[in-house]
Design brief:
The complex is a heterodimer of chains A (about 120) and B (about 110). Chain A is an all-beta fold. Chain A contains no helices and 11 strands. In chain A, a hairpin with a 3-residue loop joins β9 and β10. The chains are: A mainly beta (about 120), B mainly beta (about 110).
Chain lengths: ~120, ~110
């Protein structure tokens, strides 16, 4: 059974970089025709797609965050990561990682990240 | 890419049917999915490919699409169906968009 788990600091200071890691178990990160993505949900708000990484390494980001986002992978650890730079209070959210092949079928539990000094 | 448009709320009595719409879908493909989110839980895939149900999802949940609008219908409403529902679609150029979400209340 595929499982994903987000990990990382729960508190980040304004202007700093938010970093989260998603650990994948029960499947290989290098599975063919699969993307691995990040989605966030601000308190009381809806879901926002942040970006995805294809198994070949290609990355794709939502236009509104593209200048601040990097998604990368460590295939040896079966993990992929999210970095969001120059964060503000508006980046406070629950961040989810998920597997995607034109639909998100497996999700992590989510990690709450608060941006505050 | 703009977010997809959903009604903010929907409601129905137990046993009734409710349909939630999602507009702004491309007519070029069928990459439409729906998610159920219970309070403080991760979203759960309910429908993919417009009208396909993952294993374990009750057949009370069904999806359809007409032109630029996709719909999720919940038949035989049950109290446990009360949740937030989100549509999602492929927007081209490897971009994914979500709808704003619909809060379904079982009266």
């Amino acid at each position: 059974q595929l499982q994903l788990r987000e990990s990382g600091p729960g508190l980040v200071k304004p202007s700093e970089t938010l970093s989260l890691t998603c650990s994948v178990s029960g499947d290989s990160f290098s599975s063919r025709n699969v993307y691995w993505g990040w989605i966030r949900q601000s308190p009381g708000k809806g879901l926002e797609w942040i970006g995805s990484m294809y198994y070949t390494g290609g990355t794709y980001y939502t236009p509104s965050l593209k200048s601040r986002v990097v998604i990368s992978a460590d295939t040896s650890k079966n993990q992929f990561s999210l970095e969001l730079s120059s964060v503000t209070a508006a980046d406070t959210a629950v961040y989810y990682c998920a597997r995607y092949h034109y639909y998100f079928d497996y999700w992590g539990r989510g990690a709450l990240v608060t941006v505050s000094s | 890419q703009s977010a997809l448009t959903q009604p903010p709320s929907a409601s129905g009595s137990p046993g009734q049917s409710v349909t939630i719409s999602c507009t702004g879908i491309s007519s070029d493909h069928n990459y439409v999915s729906w998610y159920q989110q219970l309070p403080d839980k991760a979203p759960k895939l309910m429908i993919f490919g417009v009208n396909k149900r993952p294993s374990g999802v009750p057949d009370r949940f069904s999806g359809s699409k007409s032109g630029n609008t996709a719909s999720l219908t919940v038949s035989g409403l049950q109290a446990e169906d009360e949740a937030d529902y989100y549509c999602s679609s492929y927007a081209g150029s490897n971009i994914v968009v979500f709808g704003g979400g619909t809060k379904l209340t079982v009266l």
